[in-house]
Amino acid sequence: MKKSILFIALLASFAGTLSSCAVRADYGYRNHYDRYHHYNGYDRGYHHY
């Protein structure tokens, strides 16, 4: 019984790490995308957070 709880906790922490990495990658990509478009004067001010 304790082993399964431990396994679920491990799985949850792994999933959390994965999702946070995905969010960070997506945010970094959007930042790059915004900078690129603003540099070109295209789509200006559309993605301001």
Automatic annotation (TrEMBL):
It comes from the Bacteria. This is Lipoprotein.
